[in-house]
Write a structure and sequence with these properties.
- The chain is an alpha+beta fold.
- It has 2 domains: about 60-260, Cytochrome Bc1 Complex, Chain A, domain 1, CATH 3.30.830; about 280-470, Metalloenzyme, LuxS/M16 peptidase-like (Cytochrome Bc1 Complex, Chain A, domain 1).
- The protein has 19 helices and 11 strands.
- It has helices at about 15-20, 25-35, 40-45, 100-110, 120-130, 155-165, 170-185, 190-205, 220-225, 225-235, 250-260, 310-325, 330-335, 370-385, 390-400, 410-425, 430-440, 445-455, 470, and strands at about 60, 70-75, 80-85, 130-135, 140-150, 240-250, 285-290, 295-305, 345-350, 355-365, 460-465.
- The strands form 2 sheets. The protein has a 6-stranded mixed β-sheet with strand order 1-2-6-3-5-4. The protein has a 5-stranded mixed β-sheet with strand order 7-11-8-10-9.
- α1 (about 15-20) packs across α2, α4 (about 100-110) packs across α10 and α13 (about 330-335) runs antiparallel to α14 (about 370-385).
- The chain is globular and about 65 Å long.
- It starts with 13 loop residues before the first helix and ends with a helix.
């Protein structure tokens, strides 16, 4: 197994999950803004987490009847159980032509009635027992999660089994879900951040499923029938592409029986559309979208690496130094702190399966845009040529190591991580090994990655806002 850190995509509830796909630039900017309230070094200075590793045992279990594999962490600290699962290659990029939006529609409808329970009855059943079940679709995968108390686990497992195996798709529920999704689509035009994100998708992935609107197409959504929804479930949600992570107050034997029970009614194989790797041109294009917006927003992209790539750790650390560490990042120090030219500037890794990216962006006033852009390009180019110092490497490592255990603050977060570990073939020992992998990265490796990936001549840029005549030319 190659050394790879955990960098998991978060899952949101239905509408928030949908909007995240569209407003990714806004979310990244918001997370960056949160980091302003504390310096990364505040976390690692004298931190008790600095040299700790995650010691909980990860068990690989296999259900006796259906032979479903899962990762399990038993934790009896609280009587809570979390199950996270995903169906690989079943995300919205696999939607059939003429059905764009169906993955998100199914995700919203699976909790809207199943088996003998109507949508209202299902809602009352879950609320009265403090059971939370949700589904979401991103570019690559269709995912789900369950959170329950131990006292209600059997009822929770039964409800999830019905949602997956006996969804109702009642006409009134379909109409209501379509209305919500179409309204979200129509509202995209009201938000500059959303228009910017959609334009970047179009520029990078024109003609490829990754270039689609994450919410789908209005005309397709309005035509989708209950039969098509059921066919999606049959084709995409099956045991062949299933990955499961389980955490909490549940024993190995109970977890194995749960797997055979919950996933008993889905098929053993399905029919999923193959999504090819896109041919993306990273050629330094700069696209301006002149609009009378309150601020200018810029989004950048170059080629990144996948989770299984040998360059992932070095790039992970390089990104942390340049734009991933809040106020202490190179970009923030030069553009925001010293000159006050931006509301926020950031960079991050986007780990889609077919086209991983290194993304960056900032927001500024129209008057400061040209200067901010020149400084951004200058810092990006200098980072590629000169790399980072030994001191910066040490600080980045300390932060990434000390902050890692914060990911295990909730049972549902642990279950998510266990599912991600299997998706990316990290191995059952990954949680204990991850910090060692970070420590092993050398200065030479990071600077080699900086030179290779932070090529300013390949940086694709899309900006929205007010530009003067010289800028537009």
């Amino acid at each position: 197994m190659s050394h790879r850190p955990l960098y998991m995509k978060s899952r949101y509830r239905y509408l928030k999950g949908l909007l995240f796909l569209v407003f990714v630039a806004v979310v990244a900017y918001g997370l960056y803004g949160f980091s302003w309230r504390r310096s990364p070094q505040d976390l690692v200075t004298n931190s008790v987490l600095k040299d700790k590793t995650f010691e909980a045992k990860v068990q690989e279990i296999i259900s006796p009847r259906l032979k479903i594999k899962a990762y399990l962490i038993e934790d009896k600290t609280n009587p809570i159980i979390s199950v996270s699962f995903l169906f690989k290659n079943a995300g919205y990029a696999t939607d059939n032509e003429g059905e764009q939006g169906i993955a998100n529609l199914v995700a919203s409808l699976l909790t809207e009635g199943a088996g003998h329970l109507t949508a209202q009855q299902m809602k009352e059943e879950m609320e009265s027992r403090a059971i939370a079940i949700s589904f979401a679709a991103d570019k690559d995968d269709f995912s789900g999660s369950l959170l329950t108390t131990r006292d209600n686990m059997f009822k929770a497992f039964s409800l999830l089994r019905d949602m997956l195996g006996q969804p109702r798709f009642d006409p009134e529920d379909i109409m209501r879900a379509k209305t919500v999704l179409v309204e979200a689509l129509l509202r995209q035009s009201e938000h500059p951040q959303s228009r910017l994100s959609l334009k970047m998708n179009e520029v990078l992935f024109a003609g490829h499923p990754y270039g689609r609107n994450p919410l789908g197409k209005v005309k397709d959504i309005e035509r989708i029938s209950a039969a098509q929804l059921n066919q999606f479930v049959t084709d995409h949600l099956n045991r062949q592409n299933l990955i499961v992570g389980i955490a909490g107050d549940i024993s190995k034997n109970e977890a194995e029986r749960m797997l055979d029970n919950v996933f008993a009614d889905i098929g053993s194989n399905g029919r999923i559309n193959f999504v090819r790797n896109p041919e993306v041109k990273f050629d330094g294009r700069q696209i301006l979208m002149p609009e009378q917006t309150g601020q200018n927003i810029s989004l950048k992209a170059v080629a990144g690496v996948g989770r299984n790539d040998a360059d992932f750790y070095p790039l992970f650390i390089a990104n942390q130094v340049l734009g991933g560490s809040g106020l202490t990042s190179r970009l923030s120090k030069e553009i925001r702190e010293k000159r006050g030219l931006t509301y926020g500037v950031y960079s991050y890794l986007d780990l889609t399966d077919k086209a991983p990216l290194l993304m960056a962006g900032y927001a500024t006033t129209a008057e400061n845009y040209e200067e901010a852009e020149k400084l951004f390009v200058k810092e990006w180019e200098a980072f590629s040529k000169k790399g980072i110092s030994a001191e910066e490497l040490e600080k980045a490592k300390n932060y990434l190591i000390a902050s890692y255990n914060l990911r295990f603050s909730s049972i549902s977060g642990i279950a998510d991580i266990l599912a991600a570990m299997q998706k990316y073939n990290l191995g059952a020992d990954f949680l204990k090994q991850r910090n060692k992998y970070v420590k092993e990265v050398t200065l030479e490796q990071v600077n080699k990655a900086a030179k290779k990936y932070f090529d300013v001549n390949r940086l694709v840029s899309v900006s929205i806002g007010r530009f003067n005549e010289g800028t537009r030319e």
